[in-house]
User: Which sequence fits this backbone?
């Protein structure tokens, strides 16, 4: 097969890239290995992690189209109360982590709607479920990628002038010989205040296998997981208790805190103020990432809230899942941990009334679209990252370093983002690293490999460090990166120029900046303070 642009990986960055290139008139092939497009928003089942100003500014126009589409889908198809239907900034789950918490299947429907005109016209071909297994190169160019079907012995070879790596782990980088880094860089390499003295390439953020729960009458206890005894007794040195407990380090202070858990509280959805500046929202785990608040819907529509479990105790940091021979074993153990957390919640979790266990907790695999009850895919926080023309470092955006000056403003900015530098416990034994951030820009140089000419990152694999990946890995930024990668491929095809030349030539850079601005990409922030 052949197209103008090949996008490998159908997560948020991949969908945004394919949409941008197709809207520009290019023929596009988009691949995805799981059953749903959307990556962390859908198959990984993680509600949006967004900044405090997301309803006003700080995202691309097409990302706003996605968010608006999700709300409109609820208004058109769900039995909302009149009060919730009239809620301009409708938060279907009334979760505290984000101003828009929702069921993943709704995002799948909206993403498919956005892509449908281009699939119908034949401009976009989606290959699903396929993953890359090999690549051909000629010098500094990728000439083809081989894709393997997930479930049967079938392979497809694809050629394209531009190849975008939107996979969750940067899978094309080793397949194409593209130079990349993993894990923790050293302070000598980056100058970052939070970096270690020695580089630690296998020290990566925890992965998590999320799942959805409701709480209804009856006993819905799952079979005791084979590895339950191990996880029930597992006590990391820095945790302050067993991993399976209500106690864990506070990400920002590292103080050991105890979180509450109240299934189906009778709270008012419109009373939830999901603002990360004021409250990280994780005090009550049930409402933290709730994706369906029953009081948003007419009486009887939902017998229970639905909450999404992406909580501290499901973080798996026993070993990395990138560039190690036993990656599949670690991923299976991450799933075993999630089942063990569920079993602990159902049988042994302390209740406020002095009892133990919540047998009414019911695993909602129908909500996550997976026959085993968990999310279809693990939540991968940290990818392989290209060795880029420019690497974003901690001192570019740290609030402690930059202060009132704000984040570094890049002459080649191609987008904006905002999130604290939020690193979960890692495979090297590190506790949380959570650093205040300034609203930041995305430099084009972070999307351009030092050597390869027609391979572009379109997700979490851009030129960040282990530390700054903590800010650049979230939903709106991944979408922005993918969208600009798709627009850059189109721009280069139209002018016969390379991405490197676009960045290095003032005239071309100005033209490209005008092009993405016209497409609704915000490249600068207004004057606001970080948190």
Assistant:
């Amino acid at each position: 097969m052949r197209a103008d642009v090949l996008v490998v990986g159908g997560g948020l960055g991949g969908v945004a890239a394919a949409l941008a290139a197709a809207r520009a008139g290019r023929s596009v092939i988009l691949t995805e290995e799981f059953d749903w497009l959307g990556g962390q928003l859908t198959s990984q089942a993680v509600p949006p992690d967004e900044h405090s100003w997301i309803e006003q500014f700080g995202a691309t126009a097409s990302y706003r189209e996605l968010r608006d589409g999700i709300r409109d889908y609820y208004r058109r198809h769900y039995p909302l109360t009149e009060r919730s239907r009239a809620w301009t900034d409708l938060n279907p789950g009334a979760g505290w982590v984000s101003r828009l918490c929702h069921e993943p299947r709704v995002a799948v429907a909206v993403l498919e709607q956005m892509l449908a005109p281009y699939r119908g016209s034949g401009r976009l071909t989606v290959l699903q479920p396929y993953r890359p297994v090999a690549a051909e190169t000629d010098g500094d160019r990728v000439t083809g990628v081989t894709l393997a079907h997930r479930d049967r012995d079938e392979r497809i070879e694809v050629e394209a002038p531009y190849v975008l790596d939107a996979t969750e782990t940067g899978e094309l980088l080793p397949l194409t010989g593209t130079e990349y880094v993993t894990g923790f860089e050293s302070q000598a390499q980056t100058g970052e205040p939070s970096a270690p003295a020695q580089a630690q390439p296998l020290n990566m953020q925890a992965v998590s296998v999320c799942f959805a729960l409701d709480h209804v009458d009856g006993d819905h206890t799952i079979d005791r997981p084979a590895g339950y005894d191990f996880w029930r007794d597992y006590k990391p040195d820095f945790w302050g208790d067993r991993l399976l407990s209500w106690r864990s380090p506070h990400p920002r202070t590292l103080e050991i805190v105890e979180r509450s858990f109240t299934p189906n509280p009778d709270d008012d959805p419109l009373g939830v103020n999901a603002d990360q500046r004021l409250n990280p929202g994780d005090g009550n785990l049930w409402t933290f990432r709730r994706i369906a608040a029953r009081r948003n819907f007419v009486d009887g529509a939902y017998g229970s809230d639905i909450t999404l479990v992406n909580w501290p105790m499901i973080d798996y940091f026993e070993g990395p899942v990138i560039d190690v021979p036993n990656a599949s074993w670690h991923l299976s153990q991450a799933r075993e941990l999630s089942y063990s957390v569920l079993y602990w919640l159902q049988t042994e979790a302390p209740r406020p009334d002095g009892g133990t266990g919540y047998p009414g907790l019911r695993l909602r695999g129908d909500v996550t679209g997976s026959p085993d009850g968990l999310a279809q895919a693990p939540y991968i926080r940290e990818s392989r990252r290209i060795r880029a023309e420019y690497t974003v470092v901690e001192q570019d955006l740290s609030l402690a370093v930059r202060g009132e000056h704000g984040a570094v403003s890049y002459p080649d900015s191609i987008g904006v983002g905002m999130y604290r530098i939020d690193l979960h416990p890692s495979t090297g034994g590190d506790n949380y690293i959570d650093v205040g951030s300034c609203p930041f820009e995305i430099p084009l140089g972070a999307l351009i490999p030092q050597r390869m000419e027609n391979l572009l990152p379109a997700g979490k694999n851009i030129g960040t460090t282990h530390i700054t990946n903590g800010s650049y890995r979230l939903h709106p930024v991944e979408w922005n990166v993918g969208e600009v990668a798709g627009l850059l491929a189109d721009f280069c095809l139209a002018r016969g120029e390379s991405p490197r030349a676009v960045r290095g030539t003032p005239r071309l850079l100005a033209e490209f900046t005008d092009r993405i601005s016209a497409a609704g990409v915000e490249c600068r922030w207004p004057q606001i303070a970080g948190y």
